[in-house]
Design brief:
This protein is mostly helical. It is built from ten helices and no strands. Helix 2 crosses helix 3.
Length: 191
Amino acid sequence: MICNHTVNDRLLGCYLQRPELTLDSKYPLDKDEWTILFQKILYATIYNLALNGCKSVSIMDIDEFVRPFISEYNVLEDNNFEDYITTVIELTDVDNFEYYYTEFRKFSCLNAYKEKGFDIKKFYDEDKSEESQLENLNQYSIEDIINYYEGLQVGIKRQYSQRDRDIEENQAGEGLMDFKERLKEEPLYGS
């Protein structure tokens, strides 16, 4: 799985400062989109705290919420979650939330295609440097990525689908001039 660690950190920083963003239907996100277990646990915790009405999330809130879940709590402790939370909140500007969210989802989209067996090298080649691949990926939007894979599907379908060969294709407006001339000669009147 691929990810941009900086974007992941900043997105979590936004959620820590404004947990209600995890509930906003304009920005859907599934905990399974997180590729790093530590971050997945933090996101799920913030989400659950927001569901329970928290307007902000502190280190103590996370500690108290996760403590009963031994294996998850151990993951948080192994990753020094208290220092991590302090640092990402300090480094994150919540006003940039949409940017972090969109970049995060771009990686989620590529991971979804990769899981389904698609080659994602056009957008992110894991064998090349992260810096060059981030630069490459910045050229594309999520829609560009989706359109690329849909285009591949349509091309294959057109080439091999018998059903599509039986469909007559017409261009919009074809024959319009002839129809217009016939109407001038014999106008249609309603009764």
